[in-house]
Amino acid sequence: MNNKNIREAAQIIKNGGLVAFPTETVYGLGANALNPFAVAKIFELKERPSFDPLIVHIASFDDLKILSTGVTDNVMRLAKYFWPGPLTIVLPKSQLVPDIVTSGLNTVGIRMPNNAIALELIKESKCPIAAPSANKFGQLSPVNAQHVKKQLPNVDYVLDGGHTTVGIESTIVSIEGDICQLLRPGFITLEDIEEALPNTFVFNHTKPEKLVSPGLLKSHYSPQKPLYILKDPFGNIPETSGLILHRNDHSIYSVSKVIYTSQNCNKIEISSNLFAALHAMEEDKNVKSIYIEAVEEVGLGIAIMDRVNKAAYQYIKPTN
Ligand code: AMP
Ligand code: MG
Question: Strand, helix or coil at 309?
Answer without folding.
Answer: helix
